[in-house]
Amino acid sequence: MGKALQTAVARQRLLLSSRLSGPMRRLATDCAAVWPEREALEKVLEQGLELLPYCKYLFILDDKAMQITSNISPKGLLPENFGRDRSQRPYLADAIAGEKFSLSDAYISRNTRRPTLTAATHILDEDGRLLGYLGVDFDLRELPLTREVYQQEEKWMQIKGDPAIRGGVFMQERIDSAMDKRIDEVLDLVVELVEVHGVFHAKLHFSSSRATLWLIEDPFRYRLLDIEDLTDPDICLAWPQQDYPADADIPLERVKDVFHTLRDLRFMDETIYLRAGSLNIFNGTVGLNFSCDGSHYMHWSEFLDKNVGFWMGTSAPEPDSDNVE
Q1: Pairwise CA distance, residues 14 & 99, whole Å
Q2: 46, 57, 135, 255: which could join 71 in a potential S-S bond, CB 3.0 to 4.6 Å?
Q3: Domains in the chain, start-ordered, CATH in brackets?
Q4: What tens digit of pLDDT does each residue of 145-190 get?
Q5: What is the per-residue DSSP string for 177-230?
Q6: In a 3-state reduction of DSSP, which class is residue 295?
Q7: Model confidence, pTM
Q8: Contact partners, residue 6, CB within 8 Å, separation at least 6
Q9: Is there a cis peptide before residue 251, judged by omega within 30 degrees of 0?
Q10: CB-based burial of residue 276 (10 Å sphere; 0-12 exposed, 13-18 middle, 19+ buried)?
Q11: CA 291, 297, 298 angle in degrees (round to 5)?
C-alpha cells in the first residue's frame, strides 16, 4: 500500500475511532451496572443500538473472551452466538492485550463475506478491574465515512509481471502487427480524438492492433476500436467536437509528444518493446506495458524526459522509482 493510500486509510480510522469511542464507553458503563445478568445485558445492548445506529452486531464477552449474550442486531437477537469463544479472533487481539478501546483492521466476515470492522472496549467494575468486553461489528458499506476520494501519488511506479514471460523474453521477437504497419495514421487519429473529441483516456494495444477509449461525455463505458476503425478518419463524425478540458494535467500541445514517444518505444528493439501504452489527460499518467510483461506508470513530464536509452537499460534508472514485485 502506497504512503498516500495509507494516509487516507489512517484518516478514516481516526475519524471512526473518535465517533465510536464515546458511545461505546457509555454503553460499557451501563453494562457494568447490570453485570453479569444475560437478559439485563441484552436489554442494555438493544438500547445501545440508538447510540450506534450503523452497527451490524453488538455482543458482550467475559474476561476470557467467551460470549455471554446473544448477538444484538437491528433486526433482533441472534442467540446462536451465545457461548462463542472469540479469544483467538484477530479483531480482539488489541483489546485482550490491554487496549481499553480498539478498532480492528478491516477483515472479510465469515458470515457475510464482506469487509467488516470490529470495535471493542473494556467493561470495568467500580474499582477499574476488567469484567469483560463490549464488541461491536460494522459492515463497511454502512459506516458513515467521509469517503474522500483517494488521490494517487504522482510517482513513477514499476510493476514486474509474470516471471514465466520475463524468463523467456530473449527467446521472442517482435512481429509487425497491423497497427505497426500503419502506426502514423493511427497515432494521428487518436491524437485528434483526444485533442478535439473528448477522449480523456486512450490505451493503444500495439500487439493486438486495437484501442480502448474513454470519453468525458460517457466516462463509465469504454469504446473498443479495431484497426479498421483506427485508420478511418470518418470515426471522428461519431463524436461531437469538444474543447480540450482546462483542468487536464497535460497541456494540449504535449499530447502528440506522448503518443509519438509511445511509437518510439514500440520500435526501439526487436526483443524489448512496448506492447501497450496509455495516457490519461486528467491525472497526466502514462501507462506502459512491455514485452517482458513489466508495467510502468509515470507522470507525462517524467515520461517525456526519458530517452530510449533509459528503457533499453543503457542509462541508469532513477533512484526514487517505486519498484513493485
Answers
A1: 15
A2: 57
A3: 3-142 (3.30.450.20), 157-317 (no CATH)
A4: 544 544 455 555 555 545 544 545 555 677 899 999 999 999 999 9
A5: -HHHHTHHHHHHHHHHHHHHS-EEEEEEETTTTEEEEEETTEEEEEEEEEHHHH
A6: strand
A7: 0.59
A8: none
A9: no
A10: buried
A11: 125
